[in-house]
Design goal:
Fumarate Reductase Iron-sulfur Protein, Chain B, domain 2; mainly alpha; about 50% helix; globular
Length: about 120
Amino acid sequence: MGLAERVAEISGENPFACYQCGKCSASCPLVGEMDLMPNQVLRLLQLDDERVLASTSIWLCTSCLMCTLRCPRRIDVAKVMDSLRQMVLRKGVDKVQLRKVPELRAYPQIALVALSRKQTG
């Protein structure tokens, strides 16, 4: 089973439905901090590229749902990001440690709430 199929199984979303319009990336409040934009994450999934699991973008996603609201294909990109985080966490890897984030004031409050929520999941 490929990476996109595993994500589809966990999230219920079809990464192959994305046609790379970029609206998800244009609406993301943290895209400037991400190493991969949301549409690039979906593209790597389509290409079955495991590098997406090492991306910091899946951890920076705040699940604010702006990408989901703007997607013309109605892909819940936040669910896709969450499923990628789950796949990494199931391997026993914890990428983000709240106490080690430098300058907490530099991040939007929604990012900090999302980060703390990821630590309790």
